[in-house]
Amino acid sequence: MARIVLPKKFKSAYPHKFAQGKKRFLCGRRIQPRPITGRESLEDLIENSFLAYNAARLHEACRLFTEKMLDADVTVGMSLAGALTPAGIGSSVLVPLIEAGFVDWIVATGANLYHDMHHAMNLPLYKGSPFVRDPELRAVGVVRIYDILLDYNDVLMRTDDVLRKVLSQPEFQKEMGTAELHYLLGKYCDEFERQTRRPRVSLLAAAYRAGVPCFCSSPGDSTIGMNVAGLELRGNACKVNPSIDVNQSTAIVLDAQLSKRRTAAVLVGGGSPKNFMLQTEPQIQEVLRIQEFGHEFFLQFTDARPDTGGLSGATPHEAVSWGKVDVTKLPDAIVCYLDSTVALPVLTHYALARHRPRKLKRLYHKLPALTERLTREYFRNNP
């Protein structure tokens, strides 16, 4: 083999001349990671090896969440779309985040909150295969959520039976928003955890204990809402008023902004929960006509493309045009195109390893006072 000596200096013979200024682009961290040994902690692996593409976006997301969003003056909202609680994300990720004070309010699909109740009641869901024959599953009474399998009678019907008994109790016989509905359900889920001796498995129970309000942007689009509607046929007085949700969620954001605090949106998936969380700013600016500038922090995990025009794939740059995100804070806006069931456990581990728990804000118990402040500000700006 010939010996070739690397030159200390190089003069290119490339025929085209380039303009000055390349150093402002070639100034980032050099990509030359250390070899993986198998002895690294997860956070060290993220720091050393997640250097490009969506691995780099996940690295940036972990640092943004941990180093900026979790500052004491930031109110963190999290939207949840996709079948997360059936996959165990409730107990493995969301419960620890709530208990650490890392999530202050939630907007979720009703399905996530309904399926969370299976865990509270100790009703099992199983790992399965996405390639089983669905007609055979239907024939034997098994339900499939991609590769998750559960019993139609012993899980779904049993959950519905308990849910109807809960919704028939006196405290539910009134008009309410979904934050109150889920707070009351969470109280029962907390009791079910005690009965089954399986603590810290339910998102609703953890949110109840921590005073974290859980809104549902489409309450009729889930089995909880379906059972509310079914019981109404029997004269049950439980009514869900979506206007209460719009005003209470907006009040959370407005209070933070008026108090010179900052707000962050962690968007897990897209859909209606994402829009409901972000629409708090247009509600303040466009509808209530109160001067505001948008959320300071934006972090989304999604697999949706932006070029189809759907809200799920809409970027933070597009959100700026609606006033949802502060235009001056775009450097603190990250979209990571990654399955949420991969991203969330990684984000949670990194944050818990690198940041001490925050004091719980217990926003649920403050909702009446926050809504009163919203009302005063509305009339002050609209005499």
Q: Explain this structure to me?
A:
The chain is α/β, with parallel strands linked by helices and 383 residues long. The chain has a single domain (43-381), classed as Deoxyhypusine synthase (Deoxyhypusine Synthase, 3-Layer(aba) Sandwich). The protein is built from 15 helices and 11 strands. The strands form 3 sheets. The protein has a 6-stranded parallel sheet, with helices on both faces. A hairpin with a 2-residue loop joins strand 4 (142-145) and strand 5 (148-151). Helix 2 packs across helix 14, helix 7 (178-196) crosses helix 8 and helix 10 crosses helix 15. The longest helix has 19 residues, at 178-196. The protein is globular. The protein starts with 41 loop residues before the first helix and ends with a helix. 40% of the residues are buried.
CATH topology: Deoxyhypusine Synthase
Numbering strands along the chain, what is their spatial order in the largest sheet?
A: 7-2-1-9-10-11
Order of helices and strands: HHEHEHEHEEHEHHEHEHEHHEHEHH
CATH class: Alpha Beta
List keywords for this structure.
single chain, 383 residues, alpha/beta, Deoxyhypusine Synthase, 6-stranded parallel sheet, 3-stranded antiparallel sheet, 15 helices
In short:
The protein is an alpha/beta fold. Helices cover 46% and strands 12% of the residues.
